[in-house]
């Protein structure tokens, strides 16, 4: 066998050394064992290093105008997603350098700045807690390798994040961040399943028939419903029904408003159906609209929406026990022009939204922002002919909130949600519902 010359061997050794050096300084790509879907509302530290600054705190007994946490660390080391979410932005700015924004449940957005590159996941992609999204760098207005980490909630800097960091202490990426984030938890029963009354994983319908019977229509999971079956009689006094999980036990509950003004709570039973009801409040008989089925305040607990006889919209805050102790949020007037109103999480961000039909016949989408709603967006026209509207839950099995509308001739139409505040073309699913007083 011919022996290789020493110069050739020397070149090989040099190449190996260069490769080793490149590997030492190249960005690290890894997927830690903690990169799994989260359900407990617990964020993790996104990078390893020393805490040099916090929100409004320079960590040297000095105030600093600063919206995030600075974690100084070794350049090229991994940056992890603090929690499950969707990449909202992957961009560059002169101040942040290369940065990534992730949108999370509960109205939270986290930002990871000064990274070596704009990130490993494109906008619109989903990530899970602990998944690597980039590497620590020194880009933008930065004087040394570090991660600038921000948390925003409902459009404002979330300064409470300071509780999870101690100045000049060392943190390790992927370790639990010791702070409770209200509303971040992804609960086993989401808003889109809060009308599953028989606990088979499929959203159902309730109705009050022309005979004043409370009836149950089991969902098939593909947008249809089985034949109606009576539950009990004597419901002629009830003006509003709405689904909810008001006691946060993962079971579908029902709220009912009587014409004498009583608001009643029917807790979902362990094996389906309802347990004994309780009276919550009085004075609800004149409400124009009542809706629930989602968290409208961003605290992770379902609330109730109500429109007064004068057209004022109020969020009645739930406390997770089946009660509405408040404080309540009055959002303003102008809602008397609404003919139908449905609550639900129509964009999948964990915050309840509103779909409403106005007297001009348009369907409008109001995106929930936590204790408030965005300006309305027109979804479509031609909805004035409908005599009933319900939904805000998943009737088709795709984890997206849908609508069911009743036409004047008694036909039921399903409008499958897209998960972005819009709907597919309606399709006829049933007939003969003209005599029903309520559908929910």
From TrEMBL:
Question: What InterPro entries does the record tag this protein with?
Answer: Cell_wall_metabolism_enzyme, Dup_hybrid_motif, FG-GAP, Integrin_alpha_N, M23ase_b-sheet_dom
Q: What does the record give under GO molecular function?
A: metalloendopeptidase activity
Secretion signal, residue range per the UniProt entry: 1-37
Q: Which residues are in the M23ase beta-sheet core domain?
A: 65-156
Q: Which Gene3D superfamilies match?
A: Glucose Permease (Domain IIA) (2.70.70.10), Integrin alpha, N-terminal (2.130.10.130)
Which keywords label this protein? Signal
**Per its record, how is this protein called by name?**
M23ase beta-sheet core domain-containing protein
